[in-house]
Fold this sequence. Notes:
The chain contains nine helices and nine strands.
Amino acid sequence: MRRDANPDFIESIARGLDVIRSFDAAHPAMSLSEVAARADLPRPTARRILTTLELLGYAHRVEDAFMLTPRVLELGSAYIGSMNIWQIVRPHLVELVAQTKESCSIAQLDGSDIVYVARVAVPKLVTLSVTIGTRFPAFATSLGKILLAALPPDELDTVLATPSRSGVTPRWHPDRRELDSVLRDIRDRGWAVTDEQLALGIRSVATAVTDDAGRTVAAVNVNASSAETSMSTLVDHHLPPLREAAVAIGHDWTAWHARPFLTSQA
């Protein structure tokens, strides 16, 4: 059954993406039956999709199991490369890490989740692993709170009604009234914190990355271990350089997107 009434919706592409997303850290190799079940597809459909992915180099077969290949990374890298995010933010994140001695990340909103698009990490023992492409429920993260607070009311309603695709269950479960109150406070002060609301042992502070028109294009944070870093240290010591970094990133972001595009002539 089609999942979208739009006549331009291509169901076969959607099913192919369903198959790719069915693989994760807990299911790195699966049989045809397992892929079909996790992607909610008939076995013949799953088989044709896996065969296509195998022929294109995005999957390979090991005995009776299928696995994705590193070529799948090209799909995510295409977004990062087209936006030039890493080149824009890397020097600012490196400097911020040098000042705070903590891991720093940038994320954007995808449905009701945040997705990490850039990160410079400090090796520390944490309860959740974060890499480029990691997604968490937005409302339970400092990055997500910033991004949610920037949405107009009707768009916020739509985003919060979208099921999370994170697979992580937060420790904090606010009702809508509590969340709205939190987001109002964030709009007033311009920054957000989370204190073990996503997972035990993790706290962070975040602020918005805005373009020169004042639009929030991403969020940047400083992430720390609750056993090593107090909330007062996050806010009093780490927030000022974080806000400076966000301003600098926003200026560079705007400059990049305002650059003239060169076209070749035959």
